[in-house]
Each structure stands twice: as C-alpha cells, then as structure tokens.
Amino acid sequence: MRRVNNRGNQKDKTSLIPKTISIGFFAGLIWGTIAALAGYFNFTKVTPKSFVLRSWLQTTWSDQWLGEVISILIISLLSIGLAFLYYIILKKFPGILPGILTGIVLWFIVFWLFEPIFTNIPPFYMLDSDTVVTTVCLFILYSVFIGYSISFAYQQHIDENN
Questions:
Q1: Can you tell me where the transmembrane regions are (predicted)?
Q2: What gap in Å lies between CA 39 and CA 49, rounded to an integer?
Q3: Which of 51, 107, 142, 152 is a good FRET partner for 96, with 20 to 30 A between their CA atoms?
Q4: What share of residues in the chain are helix, strand, coil (percent, to 5)?
Q5: Burial class of residue 55, CB neighbours in 10 A (0-12, 13-18, 19+)
C-alpha cells in the first residue's frame, strides 16, 4: 500500500515540546530581568543573583551586573524544567487561576522550604514588606506567563489536530 501525503488537506502534527522549551526559557529571561530591575530600583532586596550566585559565591564579580546576567541565564534554563512540569500536570487547565496558584506555591517553596539553602537571603519574617509584596507579585506573574502560554499552546494544538 502506498501512503499519500495530502499536505493541503491536513495540517502537520506538531509537537509542543519546542514551544514548552521556549516558553520556559523566555519566562525566566523576561521575569528574571524584571526582578533584577525591581532590585535595581529598590522595590526588593532579593534579586536573581541573591538566589543563584550570592548564596554560594561571595566574590566581587557575583555581586555586580555580570553576576545578575549569569543568574538570569541560569534561571532561564531552570524555568524550562518548571515549564515541563507545568505542561505535564496543568496544561489542560485554561485561564490565569492555575498560574496564580502555581506562583504562590512556588514562592512558598523558594522562600520557606528552600530558605536554609539560600544563605544570602534573610528568613521570611525578616524581609521588609516591599520585598515580600514585590517577590510574590513577580512569582505570580512569572507563573501566569508560563501557565497561560502553555495552556493556550496546548489548546491551540488540540484545535489544530482535530
């Protein structure tokens, strides 16, 4: 039997893996950069370099702009993993509510559960209110970006292949 490919009648079945990778990477890049800018303008005392580099390296370069850029790139790579996790667990839930809840849970994981790992960051009860509010909002926006983008791409994928 010969198989005929009707490209004009049928759309190509695409994988969501490349979209998930790009969504995760750009979420980390965009929201990591915004977090660094929030630290620069003193909205928060906690920036990406506080987590990624300054908790383990106490060198002068890690406290400057180079440390911030490297930290943002590392966060972008780690965000790919979070995007895959979101894709596996929550891709079928549309809207922003799953992203908001994911952001709140992620904030609690980072600031409460992983608090002993990040020695450069003060405990939750010692953070000022500007830092708490800013970081909670950034985590929520970051997660909503990932969640809404992945659920939208998933729904688009389902619509294309039906």
A1: 21-43, 69-89, 96-113, 133-154
A2: 10
A3: 51
A4: 70, 0, 30
A5: middle
On whether the CB atoms of residues 43 and 128 are closer than 8 A, the answer is no
Residue 99 and residue 143 in contact, taking contact as beta carbons nearer than 8 Å: yes
Please give the single-letter amino acid code of residue 107.
W
Closest CA relative to residue 16, chosen from 73, 88, 93, 101:
88
Report pLDDT digits (tens) over 16-51. Answer: 999 999 999 999 999 999 999 999 999 999 999 888
* Amino acid identity, position 57: L
Torsion of CA 87, 90, 91, 97, to 10 degrees: -130
**pLDDT tens digits along 43-90:** 999 999 888 887 777 778 777 899 999 999 999 999 999 999 999 999
DSSP count for the chain of H helices, then E strands:
5, 0
Q: What is the DSSP string of 32-86?
A: HHHHHHHHHTTS-S--HHHHHTTTT---SGGGSHHHHHHHHHHHHHHHHHHHHHH
